[in-house]
Amino acid sequence: IYRGILHFGDLRSIAHSVRGEVWRPGEDLVILAEFDVVELERVLGEVSALNSKITNLQRRLVSEQRALERSLEQLRDTQSMLVHSEKMNALGKLAAGMAHEINNPLAFVRSNVHTLGESFARLLAAYESLEGAVLRGGPGDVTGLAGALREEIDLEFLREDAGDLVKGTLGGLARVQKIVEDLRTFARLDQTEVEVSDLRESLESTLAIAGPALKNDGVQVTVEWGELPRLRCKPAELSQVFLNLLINAAQAVACRGRGNGRIAIRARDGARAVTLDFEDNGAGMPPDVLGRIFDPFFTTKPVGQGTGLGLTISHKIVVDQHGGTLSARSIPGVGSTLTITLPKELDR
């Protein structure tokens, strides 16, 4: 009497539907299904249990995913603090040299201001003498006193000297201001996003910061500039990379134990990327050390003299944040060269 889809149990569930036939031989109904209904119920029970497990696993997966997202955010925060800490550590190594560079013009300014103060006091005393003469006597007394005071205070010398003192003072203050500007350009703690930046300006600021310490260590730095384009990059992070490479090169030169230390920086503009070489004539590295210099916490320095993170962070900044490369080659006893390649099109 019927041939087609048969529904068992909950009519809303197509899982309980099978194809079959229904006959009426006399007073009875005969139902013939293509599947064993009992077996089907057993299978459906197993499927339902599996669905329940899948649902629980999905909930657990969502919970673990959220926990991983929180851990990732904490890891990013920790990494950011670690990068900042390494930057401050690098600056700390150069603090003595920078303090010397600031103290020199400040001492010059202090001396000039002191001299200007003494000259002003002499001029003020002369003015008060003239004022008293005017109040006491006639024009003859004033004229004679003015001539005597002019010779006493050497007014012509003061006129020339004051101009030189003011000019020198302004020059010293400008020098201090330049050092502070270089520090601010290097730090740029509030500029961690990608922006179009002058790569040469970043490198020059870093050299200005590291220069005094390198000079005190007897290291000569030479730079060969090409026509460098403005790049989309993170200038604060790249400044840290430049400083890390300069510090490592200076330490390699110091380990050599001879004079005439040299660091050569070469910048080249290519078709698709900008390349910077940092070459030193230091002690060089054997192959087993060269292969590990970018590993976290790896250092050949004595305990307490290095974190082993400078080159690791530099590699991460160049490769992960800028899509570039940071490679090294070295010859023991001859020196090392670290090469940065930065793509012109930053798509990160």
UniProtKB/TrEMBL annotation:
Origin: domain of life: Bacteria
User: Which UniProt keywords are listed?
Assistant: Coiled coil, Kinase, Phosphoprotein, Transferase
TM ranges: none
**Ranges for domain Histidine kinase:** 97-346
**Chain segments annotated as coiled-coil in the UniProt record:** 40-78
GO MF annotations in UniProt:
phosphorelay sensor kinase activity
PROSITE patterns under this entry?
A: HIS_KIN
Query: What is its EC class?
Result: transferase
Catalytic activity entry: ATP + protein L-histidine = ADP + protein N-phospho-L-histidine
Q: What SMART domains does this protein map onto?
A: HATPase_c (SM00387), HisKA (SM00388)
Documented EC number(s):
2.7.13.3
| The protein's name | histidine kinase
Q: Which organism is it from?
A: Sorangium cellulosum
